[in-house]
Protein backbone atom coordinates (compact mmCIF):
# COMPACT_ATOMS: atom_id res chain seq x y z
CA UNK A 1 0.00 0.00 0.00
CA UNK A 2 2.80 2.38 0.86
CA UNK A 3 4.52 1.45 -2.39
CA UNK A 4 1.42 2.30 -4.41
CA UNK A 5 1.03 5.59 -2.57
CA UNK A 6 4.66 6.49 -3.29
CA UNK A 7 4.20 5.53 -6.95
CA UNK A 8 1.09 7.71 -7.20
CA UNK A 9 2.81 10.71 -5.63
CA UNK A 10 5.80 10.29 -7.94
CA UNK A 11 3.52 10.05 -10.98
CA UNK A 12 1.63 13.18 -9.92
CA UNK A 13 4.85 15.14 -9.42
CA UNK A 14 6.17 13.90 -12.77
CA UNK A 15 2.92 14.92 -14.51
CA UNK A 16 2.94 18.35 -12.89
CA UNK A 17 6.61 18.81 -13.80
CA UNK A 18 6.02 18.09 -17.50
CA UNK A 19 2.84 20.18 -17.49
CA UNK A 20 4.73 23.17 -16.10
CA UNK A 21 7.45 22.60 -18.70
CA UNK A 22 4.81 22.62 -21.41
CA UNK A 23 3.32 25.87 -20.13
CA UNK A 24 6.76 27.49 -19.86
CA UNK A 25 7.79 26.40 -23.36
CA UNK A 26 4.56 27.66 -24.90
CA UNK A 27 4.85 31.00 -23.12
CA UNK A 28 8.39 31.39 -24.45
CA UNK A 29 7.27 30.41 -27.93
CA UNK A 30 4.39 32.89 -27.81
CA UNK A 31 6.70 35.72 -26.71
CA UNK A 32 9.16 34.81 -29.45
CA UNK A 33 6.50 34.76 -32.17
CA UNK A 34 4.93 37.99 -30.98
CA UNK A 35 8.35 39.61 -30.97
CA UNK A 36 8.86 38.34 -34.50
CA UNK A 37 5.54 39.86 -35.57
CA UNK A 38 6.49 43.20 -34.02
CA UNK A 39 9.92 43.09 -35.67
CA UNK A 40 8.38 42.42 -39.05
CA UNK A 41 5.90 45.27 -38.62
CA UNK A 42 8.79 47.58 -37.70
CA UNK A 43 10.70 46.31 -40.71
CA UNK A 44 7.89 47.15 -43.10
CA UNK A 45 7.46 50.47 -41.35
CA UNK A 46 11.09 51.18 -42.26
CA UNK A 47 10.30 50.20 -45.85
CA UNK A 48 7.48 52.74 -45.90
CA UNK A 49 9.78 55.39 -44.45
CA UNK A 50 12.32 54.59 -47.18
CA UNK A 51 9.70 55.19 -49.85
CA UNK A 52 8.62 58.43 -48.18
CA UNK A 53 12.24 59.65 -48.06
CA UNK A 54 12.79 58.72 -51.71
CA UNK A 55 9.64 60.55 -52.76
CA UNK A 56 10.65 63.61 -50.73
CA UNK A 57 13.92 63.64 -52.66
CA UNK A 58 11.85 64.83 -55.63
CA UNK A 59 8.90 66.60 -54.00
CA UNK A 60 10.90 68.91 -51.73
CA UNK A 61 13.34 69.92 -54.47
CA UNK A 62 10.57 70.51 -57.00
CA UNK A 63 8.57 72.62 -54.55
CA UNK A 64 11.63 74.80 -54.09
CA UNK A 65 11.97 75.06 -57.89
CA UNK A 66 8.34 76.24 -58.04
CA UNK A 67 9.07 79.19 -55.77
CA UNK A 68 12.38 80.13 -57.38
CA UNK A 69 11.00 79.71 -60.90
CA UNK A 70 7.96 81.86 -60.10
CA UNK A 71 10.20 84.63 -58.76
CA UNK A 72 12.38 84.52 -61.88
CA UNK A 73 9.31 84.53 -64.14
CA UNK A 74 8.02 87.66 -62.42
CA UNK A 75 11.43 89.25 -62.99
CA UNK A 76 11.37 88.48 -66.74
CA UNK A 77 7.84 89.91 -66.97
CA UNK A 78 9.08 93.03 -65.20
CA UNK A 79 11.93 93.35 -67.72
CA UNK A 80 9.46 93.04 -70.60
CA UNK A 81 7.21 95.74 -69.17
CA UNK A 82 9.69 98.25 -67.76
CA UNK A 83 13.08 97.36 -69.21
CA UNK A 84 12.75 99.80 -72.10
CA UNK A 85 15.76 101.81 -73.27
CA UNK A 86 14.95 105.39 -74.23
CA UNK A 87 15.86 106.75 -77.63
CA UNK A 88 16.60 105.07 -80.96
CA UNK A 89 18.38 101.71 -80.81
CA UNK A 90 19.91 99.44 -83.43
CA UNK A 91 17.37 96.83 -84.60
CA UNK A 92 19.76 93.92 -84.11
CA UNK A 93 20.34 94.98 -80.50
CA UNK A 94 16.63 95.08 -79.71
CA UNK A 95 16.23 91.70 -81.39
CA UNK A 96 19.00 90.11 -79.33
CA UNK A 97 17.74 91.73 -76.15
CA UNK A 98 14.12 90.63 -76.44
CA UNK A 99 15.04 87.18 -77.77
CA UNK A 100 17.21 86.63 -74.71
CA UNK A 101 14.39 87.72 -72.40
CA UNK A 102 11.99 85.44 -74.29
CA UNK A 103 14.39 82.48 -74.02
CA UNK A 104 14.74 83.11 -70.30
CA UNK A 105 10.96 83.23 -69.87
CA UNK A 106 10.44 80.02 -71.88
CA UNK A 107 13.11 78.00 -70.06
CA UNK A 108 11.96 79.19 -66.64
CA UNK A 109 8.34 78.40 -67.50
CA UNK A 110 9.46 74.97 -68.72
CA UNK A 111 11.35 74.40 -65.46
CA UNK A 112 8.27 75.30 -63.39
CA UNK A 113 6.04 73.11 -65.54
CA UNK A 114 8.36 70.08 -65.46
CA UNK A 115 8.95 70.44 -61.74
CA UNK A 116 5.20 70.64 -61.13
CA UNK A 117 4.62 67.46 -63.12
CA UNK A 118 7.51 65.66 -61.39
CA UNK A 119 6.25 66.69 -57.95
CA UNK A 120 2.68 65.58 -58.62
CA UNK A 121 3.72 62.31 -60.28
CA UNK A 122 6.25 61.35 -57.60
CA UNK A 123 3.82 62.05 -54.77
CA UNK A 124 1.02 60.15 -56.51
CA UNK A 125 3.13 57.09 -57.30
CA UNK A 126 4.63 57.14 -53.80
CA UNK A 127 1.15 57.00 -52.26
CA UNK A 128 0.22 54.23 -54.68
CA UNK A 129 3.29 52.24 -53.72
CA UNK A 130 2.60 52.57 -49.99
CA UNK A 131 -1.11 51.83 -50.20
CA UNK A 132 -1.00 48.91 -52.65
CA UNK A 133 2.35 47.17 -52.36
CA UNK A 134 4.15 48.04 -49.12
CA UNK A 135 1.55 47.43 -46.45
CA UNK A 136 2.16 46.60 -42.81
CA UNK A 137 2.05 42.79 -42.31
CA UNK A 138 -0.74 42.74 -39.72
CA UNK A 139 -1.50 39.08 -38.84
CA UNK A 140 -4.95 37.81 -39.75
CA UNK A 141 -7.25 35.74 -37.56
CA UNK A 142 -5.89 32.38 -38.68
CA UNK A 143 -2.32 33.45 -37.98
CA UNK A 144 -3.25 34.72 -34.52
CA UNK A 145 -5.05 31.47 -33.76
CA UNK A 146 -1.99 29.48 -34.83
CA UNK A 147 0.04 31.34 -32.20
CA UNK A 148 -2.16 30.18 -29.33
CA UNK A 149 -2.11 26.80 -27.59
CA UNK A 150 -4.36 25.07 -25.06
CA UNK A 151 -3.61 22.88 -22.08
CA UNK A 152 -5.74 20.22 -23.73
CA UNK A 153 -2.99 19.92 -26.32
CA UNK A 154 -0.70 18.76 -23.53
CA UNK A 155 -2.95 15.74 -22.96
CA UNK A 156 -2.46 14.69 -26.59
CA UNK A 157 1.34 14.59 -26.44
CA UNK A 158 1.52 10.89 -25.55
CA UNK A 159 2.48 9.08 -22.38
CA UNK A 160 6.20 9.25 -23.18
CA UNK A 161 6.11 13.06 -23.17
CA UNK A 162 3.53 13.60 -20.47
CA UNK A 163 5.42 11.33 -18.04
CA UNK A 164 8.94 12.13 -19.23
CA UNK A 165 11.59 11.56 -16.56
CA UNK A 166 13.96 14.55 -16.10
CA UNK A 167 17.49 13.92 -17.39
CA UNK A 168 16.24 10.68 -18.89
CA UNK A 169 17.31 8.93 -22.09
CA UNK A 170 14.52 10.64 -24.11
CA UNK A 171 16.69 13.75 -24.64
CA UNK A 172 15.27 17.24 -25.16
CA UNK A 173 11.54 17.68 -24.90
CA UNK A 174 9.79 18.38 -28.22
CA UNK A 175 6.11 19.22 -28.20
CA UNK A 176 3.75 18.51 -31.08
CA UNK A 177 1.38 21.36 -31.90
CA UNK A 178 -2.18 20.99 -33.07
CA UNK A 179 -1.41 22.89 -36.28
CA UNK A 180 1.35 20.42 -37.17
CA UNK A 181 -0.89 17.42 -36.65
CA UNK A 182 -3.60 18.92 -38.86
CA UNK A 183 -1.04 19.60 -41.55
CA UNK A 184 0.19 16.01 -41.45
CA UNK A 185 -3.36 14.68 -41.65
CA UNK A 186 -4.19 16.83 -44.66
CA UNK A 187 -0.98 15.85 -46.47
CA UNK A 188 1.24 17.90 -48.77
CA UNK A 189 -0.70 20.40 -50.93
CA UNK A 190 -0.06 20.84 -54.61
CA UNK A 191 2.39 23.38 -55.97
CA UNK A 192 -0.36 25.71 -57.10
CA UNK A 193 -2.25 25.62 -53.83
CA UNK A 194 0.95 26.16 -51.88
CA UNK A 195 1.68 29.20 -54.01
CA UNK A 196 -1.77 30.58 -53.24
CA UNK A 197 -1.24 29.90 -49.53
CA UNK A 198 2.03 31.81 -49.59
CA UNK A 199 0.29 34.71 -51.28
CA UNK A 200 -2.43 34.75 -48.61
CA UNK A 201 0.10 34.00 -45.83
CA UNK A 202 -2.01 31.55 -43.73
CA UNK A 203 0.95 29.27 -42.96
CA UNK A 204 0.41 26.46 -40.47
CA UNK A 205 4.02 26.52 -39.26
CA UNK A 206 3.86 30.21 -38.58
CA UNK A 207 3.73 29.80 -34.82
CA UNK A 208 6.61 27.34 -34.73
CA UNK A 209 9.29 28.70 -37.06
CA UNK A 210 7.90 31.92 -38.49
CA UNK A 211 10.36 31.86 -41.42
CA UNK A 212 7.73 31.62 -44.13
CA UNK A 213 5.33 34.21 -42.80
CA UNK A 214 7.73 36.74 -41.30
CA UNK A 215 10.99 36.39 -43.22
CA UNK A 216 14.16 34.41 -42.68
CA UNK A 217 16.19 34.91 -39.55
CA UNK A 218 19.35 36.08 -41.35
CA UNK A 219 17.36 38.75 -43.21
CA UNK A 220 15.78 39.98 -40.00
CA UNK A 221 19.06 40.11 -38.13
CA UNK A 222 21.17 41.50 -40.98
CA UNK A 223 18.64 43.81 -42.60
CA UNK A 224 20.87 46.86 -42.13
CA UNK A 225 23.69 45.25 -44.12
CA UNK A 226 21.54 43.70 -46.86
CA UNK A 227 21.03 45.08 -50.35
CA UNK A 228 17.95 47.23 -51.15
CA UNK A 229 14.82 45.14 -51.04
CA UNK A 230 11.82 44.70 -53.26
CA UNK A 231 10.30 48.00 -52.19
CA UNK A 232 13.30 49.83 -53.66
CA UNK A 233 13.01 47.87 -56.89
CA UNK A 234 9.34 48.80 -57.15
CA UNK A 235 10.17 52.43 -56.44
CA UNK A 236 12.83 52.49 -59.17
CA UNK A 237 10.35 51.13 -61.69
CA UNK A 238 7.88 53.86 -60.79
CA UNK A 239 10.61 56.50 -60.58
CA UNK A 240 11.27 56.09 -64.30
CA UNK A 241 7.89 57.75 -64.93
CA UNK A 242 8.99 61.13 -63.53
CA UNK A 243 12.78 61.01 -63.20
CA UNK A 244 13.45 62.62 -66.58
CA UNK A 245 11.06 65.48 -65.77
CA UNK A 246 12.88 66.05 -62.51
CA UNK A 247 16.29 66.09 -64.21
CA UNK A 248 15.37 68.39 -67.08
CA UNK A 249 13.49 70.76 -64.78
CA UNK A 250 16.84 71.42 -63.11
CA UNK A 251 18.59 71.85 -66.46
CA UNK A 252 15.85 74.19 -67.71
CA UNK A 253 16.33 76.24 -64.56
CA UNK A 254 20.06 76.50 -65.29
CA UNK A 255 19.38 77.59 -68.88
CA UNK A 256 16.73 80.09 -67.82
CA UNK A 257 19.00 81.69 -65.22
CA UNK A 258 21.81 81.96 -67.78
CA UNK A 259 19.56 83.68 -70.29
CA UNK A 260 18.16 85.94 -67.57
CA UNK A 261 21.68 87.10 -66.70
CA UNK A 262 22.38 87.70 -70.38
CA UNK A 263 19.19 89.76 -70.74
CA UNK A 264 20.17 91.94 -67.77
CA UNK A 265 23.59 92.38 -69.34
CA UNK A 266 21.97 93.44 -72.63
CA UNK A 267 19.82 95.97 -70.79
CA UNK A 268 22.77 97.46 -68.86
CA UNK A 269 24.91 97.65 -72.01
CA UNK A 270 22.06 99.30 -73.91
CA UNK A 271 21.48 101.81 -71.13
CA UNK A 272 25.17 102.69 -70.66
CA UNK A 273 26.47 102.51 -74.25
CA UNK A 274 23.40 103.52 -76.28
CA UNK A 275 21.28 105.78 -74.10
CA UNK A 276 23.85 107.53 -71.85
CA UNK A 277 27.08 106.93 -73.83
CA UNK A 278 29.17 105.78 -70.84
CA UNK A 279 31.05 102.76 -72.22
CA UNK A 280 33.27 102.21 -69.17
CA UNK A 281 30.24 101.28 -67.07
CA UNK A 282 29.12 98.91 -69.81
CA UNK A 283 32.54 97.23 -69.84
CA UNK A 284 32.49 96.74 -66.07
CA UNK A 285 28.93 95.39 -66.09
CA UNK A 286 29.78 92.98 -68.91
CA UNK A 287 32.78 91.61 -67.01
CA UNK A 288 30.68 91.13 -63.88
CA UNK A 289 27.72 89.45 -65.58
CA UNK A 290 29.82 87.20 -67.81
CA UNK A 291 31.94 86.22 -64.82
CA UNK A 292 28.71 85.23 -63.09
CA UNK A 293 27.73 83.00 -66.03
CA UNK A 294 31.19 81.37 -65.94
CA UNK A 295 30.84 80.68 -62.23
CA UNK A 296 27.37 79.19 -62.61
CA UNK A 297 28.58 77.00 -65.46
CA UNK A 298 31.41 75.58 -63.34
CA UNK A 299 28.90 74.96 -60.53
CA UNK A 300 26.25 73.33 -62.73
CA UNK A 301 28.39 71.18 -65.03
CA UNK A 302 30.44 68.42 -63.41
CA UNK A 303 30.90 65.82 -66.17
CA UNK A 304 33.24 67.87 -68.39
CA UNK A 305 36.82 68.94 -68.00
CA UNK A 306 37.41 72.50 -66.91
CA UNK A 307 38.81 73.61 -70.25
CA UNK A 308 35.72 72.29 -72.01
CA UNK A 309 33.44 74.20 -69.65
CA UNK A 310 35.58 77.29 -70.18
CA UNK A 311 35.40 76.88 -73.97
CA UNK A 312 31.63 76.42 -73.80
CA UNK A 313 31.18 79.65 -71.88
CA UNK A 314 33.59 81.49 -74.15
CA UNK A 315 31.22 80.69 -77.01
CA UNK A 316 28.29 81.87 -74.88
CA UNK A 317 30.04 85.14 -73.96
CA UNK A 318 31.21 85.98 -77.49
CA UNK A 319 27.86 87.55 -78.61
CA UNK A 320 28.07 90.04 -75.76
CA UNK A 321 31.75 90.74 -76.44
CA UNK A 322 31.03 91.35 -80.14
CA UNK A 323 28.11 93.62 -79.23
CA UNK A 324 30.24 95.69 -76.86
CA UNK A 325 32.98 95.96 -79.50
CA UNK A 326 30.50 97.10 -82.18
CA UNK A 327 28.95 99.70 -79.87
CA UNK A 328 32.41 100.94 -78.91
CA UNK A 329 33.29 101.53 -82.57
CA UNK A 330 29.89 103.14 -83.25
CA UNK A 331 30.32 105.53 -80.29
CA UNK A 332 33.56 107.07 -81.58
CA UNK A 333 33.18 110.82 -81.86
CA UNK A 334 29.71 110.75 -80.33
CA UNK A 335 28.71 113.05 -77.46
CA UNK A 336 26.31 112.14 -74.69
CA UNK A 337 23.39 114.14 -76.15
CA UNK A 338 23.64 112.65 -79.66
CA UNK A 339 21.84 109.51 -80.74
CA UNK A 340 23.79 106.49 -81.91
CA UNK A 341 24.09 105.93 -85.65
CA UNK A 342 21.66 103.15 -86.49
CA UNK A 343 23.35 102.34 -89.82
CA UNK A 344 26.95 102.33 -88.65
CA UNK A 345 29.39 100.16 -90.59
CA UNK A 346 30.43 98.56 -87.27
CA UNK A 347 27.10 96.73 -87.12
CA UNK A 348 27.91 94.49 -90.09
CA UNK A 349 29.20 91.84 -87.66
CA UNK A 350 25.84 91.65 -85.87
CA UNK A 351 24.78 88.33 -87.51
CA UNK A 352 27.68 86.70 -85.65
CA UNK A 353 25.89 87.35 -82.35
CA UNK A 354 22.85 85.30 -83.32
CA UNK A 355 25.03 82.62 -84.93
CA UNK A 356 27.24 82.20 -81.85
CA UNK A 357 24.19 82.22 -79.58
CA UNK A 358 22.70 79.35 -81.60
CA UNK A 359 25.99 77.43 -81.44
CA UNK A 360 26.14 77.88 -77.66
CA UNK A 361 22.59 76.59 -77.24
CA UNK A 362 23.41 73.57 -79.41
CA UNK A 363 26.55 72.80 -77.39
CA UNK A 364 24.59 73.18 -74.17
CA UNK A 365 21.94 70.76 -75.44
CA UNK A 366 24.66 68.27 -76.36
CA UNK A 367 25.99 68.57 -72.82
CA UNK A 368 22.48 67.92 -71.50
CA UNK A 369 22.11 64.77 -73.61
CA UNK A 370 21.09 61.75 -71.49
CA UNK A 371 23.56 58.94 -70.95
CA UNK A 372 23.17 55.43 -72.33
CA UNK A 373 22.74 53.73 -68.96
CA UNK A 374 19.50 52.36 -67.52
CA UNK A 375 18.43 55.63 -65.89
CA UNK A 376 19.05 57.78 -69.03
CA UNK A 377 19.85 60.93 -67.06
CA UNK A 378 21.99 63.92 -68.09
CA UNK A 379 24.73 63.05 -65.61
CA UNK A 380 27.07 65.81 -66.75
CA UNK A 381 25.14 68.26 -64.57
CA UNK A 382 25.90 68.45 -60.89
CA UNK A 383 22.25 68.92 -59.89
CA UNK A 384 21.38 65.60 -61.56
CA UNK A 385 24.46 63.73 -60.40
CA UNK A 386 22.89 62.27 -57.25
CA UNK A 387 19.28 62.24 -58.41
CA UNK A 388 19.34 58.46 -58.93
CA UNK A 389 20.59 57.31 -55.53
CA UNK A 390 20.67 53.66 -56.64
CA UNK A 391 22.13 54.25 -60.08
CA UNK A 392 25.69 53.05 -59.48
CA UNK A 393 26.12 50.49 -56.74
CA UNK A 394 29.87 50.28 -57.34
CA UNK A 395 30.49 53.93 -56.46
CA UNK A 396 29.86 55.35 -53.02
CA UNK A 397 30.98 58.98 -52.66
CA UNK A 398 30.82 58.76 -48.87
CA UNK A 399 33.31 55.89 -48.91
CA UNK A 400 35.55 57.84 -51.29
CA UNK A 401 35.47 60.91 -49.08
CA UNK A 402 36.07 58.79 -45.99
CA UNK A 403 38.98 57.06 -47.71
CA UNK A 404 40.50 60.41 -48.70
CA UNK A 405 40.17 61.80 -45.19
CA UNK A 406 41.52 58.61 -43.67
CA UNK A 407 44.44 58.61 -46.05
CA UNK A 408 45.30 62.17 -45.08
CA UNK A 409 45.11 61.39 -41.37
CA UNK A 410 47.17 58.23 -41.79
CA UNK A 411 49.81 60.14 -43.74
CA UNK A 412 49.99 62.83 -41.06
CA UNK A 413 50.34 60.24 -38.30
CA UNK A 414 53.09 58.51 -40.24
CA UNK A 415 54.97 61.81 -40.55
CA UNK A 416 54.65 62.39 -36.80
CA UNK A 417 55.99 58.91 -36.08
CA UNK A 418 58.96 59.53 -38.38
CA UNK A 419 59.69 62.84 -36.63
CA UNK A 420 59.54 61.16 -33.23
CA UNK A 421 61.89 58.42 -34.41
CA UNK A 422 64.36 61.02 -35.67
CA UNK A 423 64.28 62.89 -32.37
CA UNK A 424 64.90 59.69 -30.46
CA UNK A 425 67.84 58.87 -32.75
UniProtKB/TrEMBL annotation:
Biased composition (Polar residues): 187-197
Bilayer-spanning residue ranges: 64-85, 97-120, 282-302, 309-328, 340-361
Region span, Disordered: 178-200
Keyword line: Membrane, Transmembrane, Transmembrane helix
Protein name: Uncharacterized protein
Organism: Symbiodinium natans
Native organism taxonomy: Eukaryota, Sar, Alveolata, Dinophyceae, Suessiales
